[in-house]
Amino acid sequence: MKRIQVIDSHTGGEPTRVVIGGGPDLGRGSMAERASVFRDQFDSFRSCVVNEPRGSDVLVGGLLCEPSDPECTAGVIFFNNVGVLGMCGHGAIGLAVTLAHLGRIGIGEHRIETPVGIVTVTVLPGHRVTVRNVPSYRFMKDVPVDVPGYGRVIGDIAWGGNWFYLVGEHREDLQFENVERLTSISKQIRRALEANNLAGQGGGIDHIELFGPSADPANHSRNFVLCPGGAYDRSPCGTGTSAKLACLYADGKLHPGQSWRQESIIGSVFEGSIEITTVPDVVVPSITGTAFITAESMLVVDEDDPLKAGVGDWLHSQDTCFADPKAGISAEARPG
Prior knowledge:
16-stranded mixed β-sheet; alpha+beta; 5 helices; single chain
């Protein structure tokens, strides 16, 4: 039997599963280098942790790592049902609440190393966390895309730690009862982007974000976010909100000191703000949300189980992708 120690949480309804023990040894390179090792050599571990039968399409994993930067409290590699993520805003909030739950951090600021750069999490009372994200910016404005069977949509391509296509001009009603239709249309939009070779700088657009009026007048906007693996985000999406803030700033609609309240398709809210940088139209977003611990678990992996690497990946499972269960919490999972 192999064992993987995890702690689950949810941030605004979106689940995060942090691996704190039994993870693979990725070496001692930068977090970007270790993310490449994880992607290339341990994909079965990724699938095992977040895919069925132990997880679900909506679950985001976070592999807790020892940081390469001595000024960081921890390193993390986020991943989902189809691959490795550059950054994850709701996941960073969940990670901070998890580390606080374990007694490894307390109220205050803590630096976290991710594959796309260092972010700062500020643990606040009441399960609240502010994530100061990586620099974010709009790459292209008002990009039209003709979606077969649907028509033309117009959106911005922006970076917030992942690449987004943010669509304000559409015909959809962003209500929870419409999530199946919204999911289908967002998938069609993503396919149309791919067919037209529309991408970000050095990366494909794997998130689609639709915007509309908020249900609560206390909030500025409601969104629907399609994640890379085809599930919709229950939270307002931290990296997506970061991308939105960058677009608002570029349009002169948001300034430092102002707050933007982003509402998700289920009604949960992130509060966002920006700091300007010396680079034109590049901002540093901060996102505040609330997370709660939902489980402390030990995933058990039976070597005789044909689905030990998860549904959809079981034919490609590898014995070498698991740490020695006798080793306890691996050095890779012990933050400084």
